[in-house]
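Narrative of accomplishments. A recurring question from our advisory board has been how the design workflow behaves on a single, concrete structure rather than in aggregate. To address it, we present the structure tokens for one chain from the evaluation set, followed by the sequence designed for it. No filtering or post-editing was applied between the two.
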């Protein structure tokens, strides 16, 4: 039986292209590893940010639309996206966020200290210090490598049917239930990044998708063979699973678990270096072969942006 190593990537809706790039590259110091488009709506950017190579477990991606309605956080969503930073770096991040006039709150969960803030679209982000997982060597916008975001620590899920979501996490995805406190249950996978998931105990009223909310969270599969196993298991679990789709940098299958959260299983390979050298990642618009003939039209419709340091 396959067991997921943890989060592969998280994809969210945002409403301003340049502000999003400034926030994730300029403030958080992540690397733009791929410029592409929404394959189903190619007049919309699809931007991927991560560590130096966009490794699984570090990738957050966005569909920026200026006319997007504002979402409402609630059940059936990833409530908080949590990043891991090296031990001893929270003070640096607290000072940096304050410098950029980003309001920061502090909280404690399961004996770990978190700092909480929102991006320009209202997406809730947390940072927590973790020893586990490799450090990033990417440095940008005065974020030194010793404080650079490693990748995902995990996520806090908001479920409209918590017991059913728990069964999916444990019985389908293979996570272990490791702790419970103050209305939350904690689960852990075997990976080094994106491996800690918290879930509400009491059901949460359903939210509405839109800017500032997560579209889906993807779990890792090592290869297509494992992905096909996942697809069969999802169908046997009476959750509708679509066909396997090719997203250029990974293959994936989607399913919506009973608590309303849209999940995806995504393969680790081929990764973002399949069509670009690592030193060139993010420097151009990359399109799948079936859209290449429309490049001139697509480029004309897409709004330009720049990746810039905000020192």
């Amino acid at each position: 039986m396959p067991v997921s190593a943890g989060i592969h990537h998280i994809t969210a809706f945002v409403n301003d292209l340049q502000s999003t790039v400034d926030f994730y590259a300029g403030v958080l110091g992540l690397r733009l590893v791929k410029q592409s488009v929404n394959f189903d709506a190619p007049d919309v950017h699809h931007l991927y940010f991560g560590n130096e190579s966009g490794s699984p477990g570090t990738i957050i991606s966005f569909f920026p639309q200026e006319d997007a309605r504002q979402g409402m956080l609630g059940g059936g969503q990833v409530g908080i996206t949590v990043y891991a930073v090296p031990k001893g770096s929270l003070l640096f991040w607290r000072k940096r966020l304050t410098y950029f006039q980003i309001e920061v709150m502090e909280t404690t969960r399961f004996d770990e200290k978190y700092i909480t803030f929102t991006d320009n679209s209202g997406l809730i982000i947390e940072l927590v210090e973790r020893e586990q997982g490799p450090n990033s060597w990417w440095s940008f916008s005065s974020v030194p490598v010793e404080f650079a975001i490693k990748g995902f620590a995990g996520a806090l899920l908001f479920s409209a049917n918590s017991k059913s979501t728990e069964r999916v996490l444990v019985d389908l995805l293979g996570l272990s239930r490791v702790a419970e406190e103050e209305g939350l249950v904690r689960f852990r996978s075997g990976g080094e990044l994106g491996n800690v998931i918290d879930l509400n105990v009491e059901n949460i009223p359903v939210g509405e998708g839109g800017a500032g909310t997560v579209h889906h969270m993807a779990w890792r599969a090592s290869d297509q063979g494992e992905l096909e196993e996942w697809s069969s298991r999802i169908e046997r679990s009476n959750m509708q699973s679509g066909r396997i789709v090719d997203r250029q940098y990974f293959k994936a299958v989607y399913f919506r678990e009973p608590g309303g959260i849209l999940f995806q299983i995504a393969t680790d390979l081929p990764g973002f270096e399949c069509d670009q050298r690592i030193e060139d990642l993010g420097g151009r618009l990359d399109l799948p072969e079936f859209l290449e003939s429309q490049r001139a039209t697509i480029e004309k419709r897409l709004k330009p942006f720049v990746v810039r340091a905000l020192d």
